[in-house]
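Researcher: Please translate sequence to structure tokens.
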Amino acid sequence: MADGKKPQRRLCRIACMQYLYSWSINEPTDLNEDLRVFFSEQEEERDYYAFAEELVFGVIDNREAIDAKIQELASNWDFDRIAKIDLSILRMAIFELLFRKDIPPVVTINEAIDLSKLYSAEESRRFVNGILDRLRGQLNRPSREASWD
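Model: Translation complete:
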């Protein structure tokens, strides 16, 4: 971007990843209140993070299916040993791939890889890419375009 700022969806994915990370360590008793506090500490107003909030609720509401998919795709990995930050990135990306057909799969995968480069260990990028690429191969839709059916 010309002004050097990160695009809004990127910032929303970062906020979602951060929230999912903290949620995976200490699951709150009141999700709505926890989200209110989390977003009140962000740089922008809460409305700015509407996409992040959609992702958070989507991941949490579909956690069992998402985690089952991660376990299937990471068959050689002990689920409990996956780094929490990588798990947060994978959960968010897998939610997008499975439930947000309005987002092209390559966009989701590239965003997840970029987040793993910025926030996780060096080898995480390959791990995240491998898992998501395997899932992309299972999808019944084009990789480079949104699907509206």
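Researcher: Any highlights?
Model: Residues 80 and 87 are 10 Å apart (CA to CA).
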